[in-house]
Design goal:
mainly alpha
Amino acid sequence: MNTLSVLEEKIKLLIIHVQKLQSENAALLLDREHFERVTVELKSENARLIEENVKLQEKAKEAHISTTKGNKQLDALNKEREVTKNAVNELIKSIDVFVNGEAQQ
């Protein structure tokens, strides 16, 4: 009977151990489900951010193109202004020469 008591005690301990493992397993399953939900949410957020990033890159590219175009237009206008300024200065000199020539006669 002593052997039977020892065996009974070991079976009780095994049952307690199995119950403990079942409890831990249930907790781990809950954690896993939570992490799977979080993973799905993060993947969704990542996809949204990738899409937003693509849109922002397109806007940045458009802004760069627009800025480059605007800079070229400004350069052209500055050259025109310089040509106009030189033409006006030449005209003023011609008028001065003409006025001085008239004044001397």
